[in-house]
Design brief:
10 helices; alpha/beta; Alpha/beta knot; about 280 residues; 60s Ribosomal Protein L30, Chain: A; 11 strands; six-stranded parallel β-sheet; five-stranded mixed β-sheet
């Protein structure tokens, strides 16, 4: 979409928009402003595909705008390389950086169509798979898990508050823009547990909660599910796995059979095997 809006040049590192972009390097800044950085054409294009609102766009030259399909309501600034490097989080700044509003997704756990606990499941109901990540600390791991999960058809992703910020630029790069594909919500394990336990007092559960545990004697390949139940998969921290509290929430704990005396898989590999195996 073209526009007659002028492209403003910024030459001062003390400019308010430069300061804003720098502020968004921090989790506190992103939460306070409800904004985040998109670095590079790929992430910006993915955000535009998902109708995220781009408030400000920084480019090194106007030619980049033709590749991005610039939106009329977006304010565009042209920067020299030194200022692009100042607002970028990478060593080599990309040709385009944007500031976008955080996407808003409804929480499926609050929607009646998810219906975690129901006495009368619908016969025609489609089984949905959900993923809960507990205390994932590495941004690259989380971004790759997000990409893998949505590729495997996961309905939504839940993150414990102890997990890395999904709007961390390293997470977004590793996700290749799939962080905008569906609901990603932070949810404390206690909150999830309370939702299930409160309803379970009077209703029948329609949710299987599957936890990954390398010491479990049951293989994920041996799982059998009722067609009336949704499935929530829990994966834990890279080093420590699922907490005891998370394991207590699970209806089944499963492991991945490994050959050649290999002790374990990394969190991304294990999650990929489980998600596509269940799919």
């Amino acid at each position: 979409m073209t526009t007659t809006m002028d492209i403003q040049k910024i030459s001062s590192r003390d400019n308010q928009y430069i300061k804003l972009a720098r502020f968004l390097h921090q989790k506190r800044g992103r939460q306070e402003k409800n904004l985040f950085l998109l670095e590079g054409k790929t992430l910006i294009q993915e955000a535009l595909k998902k109708d995220l609102k781009i408030q400000f766009l920084f480019v090194q030259n106007s030619a980049v705008l033709n590749e991005l399909g610039r939106q009329a309501q977006t304010q565009v600034f042209e920067l020299e390389n030194d200022l692009m490097a100042r607002i970028a989080t990478t060593e080599n700044p990309p040709p385009a950086i944007a500031i976008a509003e955080m996407p808003k997704f409804e929480d499926p756990l609050e929607q009646t169509q998810l219906n975690l606990l129901s006495k009368e499941p619908e016969i025609t109901k489609e089984t949905n798979h959900y993923l809960y990540c507990e205390n994932i600390s590495d941004p690259g791991n989380l971004g790759s898990i997000i990409r893998t999960a949505f590729a495997a058809g996961i309905k939504s992703i839940y993150l414990s508050p102890g997990s890395v910020d999904v709007f961390n630029t390293k997470v977004l790069r590793a996700s290749m823009g799939t962080a905008f594909y569906g609901p990603i919500k932070y949810l404390a394990l206690d909150e999830l547990k309370a939702k299930i336990q409160d309803e379970a007092k009077t209703k029948t559960m329609s949710l299987e909660v599957i936890g990954t545990c390398p010491h479990s004697t049951k293989s994920y390949q041996d799982l059998q599910f009722s067609p009336f139940k949704d499935v929530l998969i829990l994966v834990g921290n890279e080093s420590h796995g699922l907490s005891d509290s998370a394991k207590e929430l699970c209806t089944e704990l499963v492991s991945i059979p490994l050959a050649n005396d290999v002790e374990s898989l990394n969190i991304l590999s294990a999650t990929s095997v489980i998600l596509f195996g269940l799919k």
